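user: can you give me the structure for this one chain? tokens are fine.
assistant: on it. calling the predictor now.
[tool input]
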Amino acid sequence: METRGVMPKERALIEIRLAGLSQGIHKFDFTCAAGDFKDSAVKDAGFSDGISVHAIVEKNDDEIAVSMETTAKAALSCDLCLAPVALELKGTYRVYYIYEQAPGQEEAADEYRLIDRNSVSIDLTEDVRETLLLSVPMKATCTDNPDCHIYLQEGSEDADNLPDSSWQESLEKLKDKYR
């Protein structure tokens, strides 16, 4: 017998099963690959290796609080010298699942989501994806590349960098004062 028009739901990549989950604090660890996400933005952001997710679920009568921390390595390029930079990026996110909307409350905030009391699981895949993308720094720079002369190590100044005039000397003193 063939059924048409009904698409099977894809299995969640990162899912917490609520069925049988007792009240209290529960810890979960997940690992996946960047390619497991069906979104090219994760790969475009520089993630290619394994991604680990540590989730802490606090379940009580009124709500379920989920705190998650993502850890992944990203291959980026220095925005100053374009040298390859490998960074371990960490991101955190906390979301609350509530069973009922309070009377008079128009719409739940982004961190609060309504959930049915009979829900079998919570899909965290999209929250993890967003946390990963938000953990990417706006500017990636290298500080240990000898070819990138933007960041000089302490004591590496040579005689060519001495101030030529009094205003440059004053500026150097001011910079040293606020380091």
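assistant: here you go. The chain is about 15% helix and 35% strand. Strands lie at 15-17, 24-33, 47-59, 63-77, 84-98, 112-114, 121-123.
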